[in-house]
Amino acid sequence: MPTASTSSAREILTGLHDVMASRSGAQAKLNKVVKIIAEAMASEVCSIYLLRDGLLELYATVGLNQSAVHVTKLAMGEGLVGTIARDVSLLNLDEATSHPEFAYRPETGEELYHSFAGVPIVRRERAIGVVAVQHAEPRRYDDVEIEALQTVAMVLAELIAGAGLADKAGAATETTRDAGSARLPGLKLVLGMARGVAVYHQPRILIEHTVAEDIEAERHRVYSAFRKMREQIDTMTSAPEFGTAGEHQEILETYKMFAYDEGWSRRINEAIDSGLTAEAAIERVQQRTRMRMREINDPLLAERMHDLDDLANRLLRIVSGRLGTAAQMGLQQDAILVARNLGPAELLEYDRRRLKGVILEEGSLTAHVTIVARAMGVPMIGRVRDVRQMITEGDELLLDGDEGVVHVRPTGPIGEAFDAKLLARQKQRADLAAFKSLESITLDGERLTVAINAGLRDDVEALETTGADAIGLFRTEFQFLVSATLPRREAQQRLYKAVLDAADGKLVVFRTLDIGGDKALPYLRTEDQEEENPAMGWRALRLSLDRSALMKTQARALLEAGAGREIYIMFPMISEPWEFDAAKALVEEQREWLAARKKLTPYKINYGAMLEVPALAEALDILLPRIDFLSIGTNDLTQFLFAADRSHPKLAERYDWLSPAILRFIRRVVGVARDHKVPVAVCGEMGGRPLEAMALVGLGIRRLSITPAAVGPIKAMIRSLDRGQMMTHMETLLAAPPNDMRAALVEWAEENGVSIG
Ligand code: PEP
Ligand code: MG
Questions:
Q1: What's the CA-to-centroid distance between 250 and ligand 2, angstroms?
Q2: Which of 44, 109, 686, 747 is 20 to 30 A from 542, alpha carbon to alpha carbon?
Q3: What local confidence, expressed as pLDDT, does residue 198 receive?
Q4: What is the structure's pLDDT at 527?
Q5: Nearest partner of 631 among 570, 681, 581, judged by Cα
Q6: What is the pLDDT at residue 180?
Q7: DSSP E strands: which ranges in 230-362?
Q8: What is the pLDDT of residue 7?
Q9: Ligand 1 in contact with 631 (CB < 6 A)?
Q10: Residue 170 has what pLDDT?
Q11: pLDDT by residue (tens digit) across 84-139?
């Protein structure tokens, strides 16, 4: 049953439908439209303003002086109409003149009218015009009238875009310069600079048709879309990987609640009854959510509204049949990806030659997606607020990962400054590339090892381009993350062999599978255990030892790939020495199996352990005699030492790697390892930052395994550092730590001419 709200909108839409179908010119159509609206709403005035050459021009009116048409023009933000367009939000006033932004235009003759209601005409989330009604009598418009006006504005957007009447939303015009150019700050996640075009990971749907031909058919379309969406959400919520309690549970529950919300589906159906297509109806209701979102101050509630917005996008994608991510649909050249958040596997799906940068609303420094982006050499910033409001698909973007900002729709001078900086950066990189052939020797003559972290076959090329000494961490799980199904032993073996061949005699440390936590594999069912804290849960070696078939397969692949060579195998997340023993025994068992069949095996296997669980530090005297090398994973170690989730956006910047707790902890580990004559390296992200790396060298670390892009800066740091002096200074600092350890280290580096970038 259509309600009162749908009937007045429907009346207008029927009229608009005829106007749109008619063969008259665009101006004549607009003249008819204002009449239809005025009649249906019994308003004395109805006017349409369109954005032309950056100004909002009165295009058609009934009630105002006709001589003002194409004469009255308002800038963005000027008067009530300019305010509506700038803020992309409606105004509903019983006394227009009392609004602070009211701007009187004598040529219009509007002094006769008191009440005013106006809504933006929106295309690609920007206002391309305004439609307004006015009455002589001071009154507020009720929801039904406002909603009718909003519906009309949607249809008008289609008519105007089709006729090419207004400035193109997002085009580089005067207005977009005024209203659109923006500088959004964020958290630096992966350094680097990129110029490109905004592409949404989940692309936005641009609605082409707003007026329904057949209301029943539209109702049916939205009904099946709802059913499908609910099925998807149900499947998602019951998937084993989400079966655990935690923050995601709450999000999924909210999703579920919204998906089944009768009020939401009723509002969409009402919009369809008023004559809109299913897509337009969903968006109409979504616009209302967005407006509410802007008005809400409560962050929790705003977050919920965000979820509803996400869900509406999902529904739109289903109803329009445009599913899939930007990666699946083929990425355009020079794309800068915009997303709320991404999993490492999702990022790996993108063509790295086309992907120039990533902007996330969430994100943290040591989340695996960040590590993957770093490995791919793709600049990334995170925790950028309101991206979805501020960036439209197709916008020109300048991403400055070094500064942690993105310029949206930049003006000429900003673009020029960016290019100049980019050039300087390229020169600096070229200078650093000169370090490629230079050894990592400190001023006092100590040769340190600078290795790279890798995970994909192509990463190995970085060994050559950076002149690094080795691959200190090869994350074997990356192959599992990029694959749609469990990689077979042959595929694993091929990858490991290709890596060893490409490394051309340089050492490669293969880390056995580290899955779980934020590296979930959709095809690997993690049984039905409830995991409240997946990062501290059944992951890495814990999972591998329990699922020994997985581990055995990988061990066989490694042994076959390394046949006739010396190889290095490292186990992640060792918490107690027996886990190392069990893992080593498993590999040895495979070696014996191969040897018994007269298969060639590696002539030497070096076994290493990662120290990333603090408890292991207390058992080093037991573990060290059994292992060949130790590698400190500062990413996980920090999260466990501080009890702070490494991928939690709110904790991303809370704790500093240069805190006395971490530095003292590492110093102790280095000391015990030295006593046992076991080499120790650092392979977390910390080692790739010059200041942090300087501190690590000061603690006695001689081996670093870092992201390839950091090799130049780290070598530069090492070659400008007197290790002995740093070690002495570090002792002094750690004996009585200053309040700000970072500042103290920067000061020392500057005083001593150490290159810290
Ligand atoms: C670490 O935890 O520091 C580490 C190097 O391993 P990952 O980041 O892959 O967990
Ligand atoms: Mg780790």
A1: 26
A2: 686
A3: 94
A4: 54
A5: 681
A6: 65
A7: 335-339, 355-360
A8: 58
A9: no
A10: 41
A11: 998 888 899 999 988 998 988 888 888 888 999 999 998 876 788 999 999 988 88
Sign of CA dihedral 197, 202, 204, 205: positive
Specify the pLDDT at position 178: 39
Q: Tokens 């409830």, residue?
A: 530
Provide CB contacts within 8 A for 168, sequence distance 6+: none
Q: Read off φ and ψ for residue 485, nearest 5 degrees.
A: -135, 170
Q: In angstroms, rounded to a whole number, what is the distance separating the alpha carbons of residues 7 and 15? A: 12
What spacing in Å lies between the alpha carbon of 683 and ligand 1's midpoint?
Answer: 7
Pairing of strands 405-408, 182-185: antiparallel
Cα separation, 475 vs 478, whole angstroms? 6
683 in catalytic set: yes
Condensed to tens digits (0 to 9), the pLDDT of residues 248-292 reads 456 667 777 888 888 889 989 988 988 899 999 998 888 777 776
> Which ligand places an atom closest to the C-alpha of 473?
1
pTM of structure: 0.62
For ligand 1, whether the C-beta of 514 sits within 6 Å is: yes
The shares of helix, strand and coil residues in the chain, as percent rounded to the nearest 5, are 50, 15, 30
Question: What pairing do the DSSP bridges indicate for beta strands 55-62 and 45-52?
Answer: antiparallel
Q: How many CA atoms lie less than 13 Å away from 84 in the CB half-sphere?
A: 29
Residue length of the chain = 757
The token duo for 286 is: 């979504």
For ligand 1, whether the C-beta of 13 sits within 6 Å is no
Q: How far is CA 389 from the centre of its chain?
A: 15
The answer to whether 737 touches 711, Cβ cutoff 8 Å, is no
Distance between CA 323 and CA 51 in Å, rounded?
Answer: 32
- CA 719 → CA 353, 429, 670, 715, distances in Å? 33, 16, 22, 6
Q: What is the pLDDT of residue 21?
A: 76
What distance in Å separates the CA atoms of residue 452 and residue 472, rounded to the nearest whole number? 6
Q: Do residues 110 and 134 lie in contact, with contact meaning Cβ atoms separated by under 8 Å?
A: yes
Element (H or E) spanning 267, and its range? Answer: helix 262-273
Is residue 555 within 8 A of residue 269, CB to CB? The reply is no
Q: Which pLDDT score is estimated for 203?
A: 73
87 to 90, 91, 239: CA distances (angstroms)? 8, 10, 41
Residue 638 CB less than 6 A away from ligand 1: no
Active site residue 46: no
Query: CB of 686 closer than 6 A to ligand 1?
Result: no
DSSP 296: -
Buried b or exposed e, range 133-146, using 16+ CB within 10 angstroms: bbbeeeeebeebbb
CA distance 556 to 590: 6
Weakly modelled stretches of the chain, pLDDT under 50: 1-4, 170-179, 241-242, 247-248
Which residue's CA is the nearest one to ligand 1's atom 8? Answer: 635
Tokens representing 590? Answer: 């495979």
Residue 82 CB-density burial (10 A; 0-12 exposed, 13-18 middle, 19+ buried): buried
Q: What is the dihedral of CA 540, 541, 546, 550, to 10 degrees?
A: 80
Which of 370, 513, 514 most suits a substitution to test ligand 1, by most atoms within 8 Å of the C-beta? 514
Structure tokens at 487: 């990689």
Beta bridge partners of 452: 471, 706
Nearest to 159, CA basis, from 32, 44, 323, 309: 32
Report the distance separating Cα 329 and Cα 233, nearest Å.
22
pLDDT of residue 551: 94
502: which 2 tokens? Answer: 């490409």
CA of 524 relative to ligand 1 center, distance in Å:
21
Bridge partners, residue 58, by sequence: 49
Query: In this structure, how many other beta carbons lie within 10 angstroms of the beta carbon of residue 423?
Result: 10
326 C-alpha to ligand 2 centroid (Å): 29
Q: What is the Cα–Cα distance from 685 to 372, expressed in whole angstroms? A: 12
> Is there an atom of ligand 1 within 6 Å of 683 CB?
yes
Counting from 1 in the atom list of ligand 1, the atom nearest the Cα of 477 is: 9
Burial of residue 378 (CB within 10 Å: 0-12, 13-18, 19+) is buried
